[in-house]
Write a structure and sequence with these properties.
This protein is an alpha/beta fold. 40% of the residues lie in helices and 18% in strands. The chain is elongated and about 70 Å long. 38% of the residues are buried.
Length: 290
């Protein structure tokens, strides 16, 4: 692990950038614990999102075969590059880049294996990163990610909870999720107002129930939760799904879901069945029948 972040930044008259959610992990034993509990192996290829000043990068370089460390902040990338060079670490491929400009499929193809992903995610990009990883699921085997506690609780929430959300449904369909660690706020600099939790997402090889259209699945969930105070009937009609009011009852009856329910009461399996029914409807709306 490099020198303390406050020293590295003070030497260059820099400060953590609040707009980028920069809270640096300062406890080496916590970084080691996160990596140990992840089960990362010496032959793994790792994609690290937001390398910062290397709190996870350094121990990852010792645990994995190769680490692609992505850092958006040019000044931090420069500091980390020098620290890696001084430490003689040669298996880290540091990129000054926005993670959303990185193509995991290209890295996986070059390394000839699926990737392991790590990152301490700022609140403002948590959702976007998770959607990004879902879209890259063909080449991502597992992701171990740190979130603010309230975000983690939302991702783990089930039907009937106020925290149950669009991301809860999508992640619980595509991955197996488990909590691996809680990290106290005082272990970061500057210390955030809340603790963080590390969640492990194992991407499923076989998805059940089977979806007929993955893009439509995302659209249906977005429409349902986009107006979560409305009934499912009204939420779907207000979305961009092209469903006629006269056919809502037919769709609901066919998939066995009461249209008077709200999105947060539906299980993941019910959302899959609803999506498949809407897919059938869209394919033949003029002759849709129960």
């Amino acid at each position: 692990m490099p020198e303390p972040p406050w020293k590295l930044l003070n030497e260059r008259d820099l400060r953590p950038r609040k707009a980028l959610g920069q809270n640096f992990l300062i406890d080496p034993s916590t970084a080691e614990m996160i990596i140990r509990r992840s089960g990362v192996r010496e032959d793994d290829a790792v994609l690290e999102i937001g390398a910062g000043l290397g709190a996870l990068t350094f121990p990852l370089s010792r645990a994995a075969r190769v680490v692609y460390a992505i850092e958006k902040d040019q000044e931090l990338a420069g500091i980390l590059s020098g620290a890696l060079r001084d430490a003689g670490i040669g298996n880290v491929r540091l990129r000054h880049q926005n993670i959303f400009d990185v193509a995991p499929a290209e890295i996986a193809a070059f390394e000839n294996q699926a990737l392991r992903v790590f990152g301490n995610l700022p609140y403002y990009i948590s959702s976007q990163v998770l959607i990004y990883l879902i879209n890259a699921r063909a080449v991502v085997r597992q992701a171990d990610l740190m979130f603010q506690k309230e975000v983690a609780q939302r991702l783990l929430a089930g039907p009937g909870s106020k925290s149950y959300s669009r991301l809860s449904v999508m992640l619980q369909y595509y991955t197996e999720i488990r909590r691996t660690a809680t990290v106290n706020a005082h272990l970061f600099w500057p210390a955030p107002k809340v603790d963080s939790e590390v969640l492990q997402f194992q991407f499923k090889g076989e998805l059940q129930p089977v979806l007929k259209d993955h893009a439509l699945f995302a659209d249906v969930i977005k429409a349902a939760f986009g107006r979560r105070r409305k009934t499912l009937r009204n939420a779907l009609l207000s979305g961009d799904l092209g469903i006629r009011r006269a056919d809502i009852e037919k769709i609901s009856e066919k998939c066995g879901i009461d249209p008077r329910k709200r999105a947060e009461t539906l299980t993941v399996e019910q959302f899959v069945h609803l999506t498949n029914t809407i897919f059938q409807y869209q394919a033949n709306a003029s002759d849709f029948s129960v």
